[in-house]
Amino acid sequence: MKQKALAFELGESWNQRKISLLEQKEDIENDLLQQVAEALKVPVEAIENFDEEAAIFNIQNNYEGSNSKAASVGVTNYQCHFNPLDKVVELYERLLASEKEKVELLKKK
């Protein structure tokens, strides 16, 4: 998610610059972390336990045709338990609602 989109999700007092500064912090207050997790639609634990190296490894190795490579290093192939198309539609609907809200705010001004 882009910083500007996250700022929009967090509310009027947020902007891209403030999100950038937040990303640079080593520690984030629990209340704020909860708000960010809700805006990103992920559990707080996903942020707290995020491992950049593991994420990069998964991105590089979990694509169609990579099973033999992953098996050779002892990585269990992750099975998706949801329909990815449903997630795309959900994201589209959220983006559409967000754009409608922006249009309404602009009309009011």
Characterise this structure.
Helix content is 68%, strand content 0%. With 109 residues, the protein is mainly alpha-helical. The longest helix is centred in the C-terminal third of the chain and has 25 residues, at 84-108. The radius of gyration is 18 Å and the shape is globular.
Protein traits:
single chain, 109 residues, mainly alpha, 7 helices
Short summary:
It contains seven helices and no strands. The chain has 109 residues and is mostly helical.
Give the total of beta strands.
0
Report the sheet-strand fraction. Answer: under 5%
Helical content (DSSP H or I, runs of 4+): 55-70%
Give the overall shape, derived from the CA principal axes: globular
How big is the Rg? 18 Å
What would the average pLDDT be, to the nearest integer? 84
Largest sheet: none
Number of helical segments?
A: 7
- Quaternary assembly: single chain
In whole angstroms, the N-to-C terminal distance is 27 Å
Low-confidence blocks of residues: none
Element pattern in H and E: HHHHHHH
Structural class assignment: mainly alpha
Secondary structure layout:
Blueprint (H helix, E strand, L loop, with lengths): L2 H8 L5 H9 L5 H11 L3 H5 L3 H10 L5 H6 L11 H25 L1
Helix pairs in contact: 1-2
